[in-house]
Amino acid sequence: MNTAISRTQNIKKNAVAFGSMVFGTVLVLGTLILINDSKEHMEAVKNGQGVNIKIQRQKPKAKQEVKRVKPKPKPKRTRSAPPAPVLGLNSQLSGLDLGLPDFSMDGLNGLDGDLLGSAAGVVMTDDTVDQAVKAVVQTPMMYPPRARAKGIEGYVVFSLLIGITGEIEQIKIIESHPEGVFDEVATQGVNAWKFEPAQYQGQSVKSWAKQRIRFDLS
Amino acid sequence: MNVFQDVWGYLESGGYVMPPLFIITVVLWWTLGYRMMSLQRGTVRGTRNLVYRYMHGKLPSKSNGVLVRALSKGMALRKENLPHLRRHLDDAFVDEDREIRKYKVLITTLVLVAPLLGLLGTVSGMIETFDSLGDMSLFSQSGGIAGGISQALITTQMGLAVSIPGLIVNGILDKKQKQLEIDLAQLKDFLCSPIPGLEA
After folding, report:
1. Distance from CA of A46 to the nearest CA of B (A)
2. What residues of chain B, 92 to 131, have a C-beta less than 8 Å from chain A?
3. Are B32 and B104 in contact (CB under 8 A)?
4. Which of A9, A32, A34 to mutate: most B Cβ within 10 Å?
5. How far apart are CA A213 and CA A189, in angstroms?
6. What is the pLDDT of residues B70-89, one digit of tens each?
7. Which helix (H) or strand (E) holds A24?
């Protein structure tokens, strides 16, 4: 019973699928033909059903002739011949003292080697130098008594510009936590530190360095 | 006959991708029709309503939709008072599950492949165009520039014309399938729980 039902059902299914196949194919091909049916358009054009547009050219009106008075030709300038070059100028100038210092090309010779390689006067950062700034002497700092009393811990991050000789040229506080508590103490403390300058291609260079100072109560 | 000639002309001018495209059309619409038939619910009513109607013997016996078939199978299993009814139901519903999922992947593939084939035809048409440009054979036997361009355009058009309706119908069918899956799951839940009025 059950199989019989499913068999008729299968037949029905396949029949519908076949119908759908025919329908779909006709649909697709019909669409294709409908879209591309240019023959009718062509015939419509041939039969003159299209709109004809005639373009009439208007004859250009006769130009009114305007007589222009010819301007008088400008009197030609007669160019006087350039003066003949003075012979022997070289010899005359050589005797003059212009009061200018001697100019020699010697100084330019060394230019190619040093122009990019020399790092004198260039301020670099930790990332660009070969060897970063090192703190050589780190003197201990006083813990601010008020902060100690309250049990506050924190840190200060500095950006230090270290010169060629290792001296501190600028101090900037980048970050401090908690704000303003340790700034003064830390700045004074860092000022007393000593640094070794950064190295770039074997030479000391000026560079910015980051220094983080932590204040811990342990 | 004129229509057939037109169709034949298009199929010829499209080059070698046209026969596959035609086959894809035929197969695609056959499977769509099959799927349309196999996704019939058999009733417009919801699951709960269906069970009550079954209890009162009001179900249309001739209806052969997925839900009605599943319900009659499930009820038969339920009457046997089997332990682990859900497993038996899962087993019994596998056929329905498979039936409603049949040809789904095939349809998706065909719908996706058709525009790609059209694209392939376009490319080969353009190649022909440029070849004849290079040879300076503008009106050769194979079609020359005009033939190449017409091939390029016709194939794209055919690919899209095959794909777009298929995509739409496929979307509708997919939604139907999802709904049916939900309904089947619901039916299982319903059959596994005590139904008021049936056992009493």
Report:
1. 20
2. none
3. no
4. A32
5. 10
6. 888 888 888 888 788 888 88
7. helix A2-36
B188 is written with which tokens?
Answer: 């299982």
The pair of three-digit structure tokens given for residue A140, joined into one six-digit string: 């201990």
Strands A203-215 and A198-200: antiparallel
Give A21's contacts in chain B (Cβ within 8 Å). 26, 29-30, 33
Burial of B25 (0-12, 13-18, 19+ CB in 10 A): buried
> A16–B34: do the CB atoms touch at under 8 Å?
yes
Distance of residue A8 Cα from the nearest chain B Cα, in angstroms? 11
Residues of chain B with pLDDT under 50: 200
Q: Is B37 on the interface with A (CB under 8 A)?
A: yes
Q: Please tell me the distance from the alpha carbon of residue A72 to that of residue A77, in angstroms, as a whole number.
A: 14
Residue B20 amino acid letter: P
Residue A133 CB coordination number (10 Å): 24
ipTM of predicted complex: 0.76
Judging by DSSP bridges, how do beta strands A134-137 and A123-124 pair with one another?
Answer: unpaired
Which of B105-133 are b and which e, b meaning 16 or more Cβ less than 10 Å from the residue's Cβ?
Answer: eebeebbebbbebbbbbbebbeebbeebe
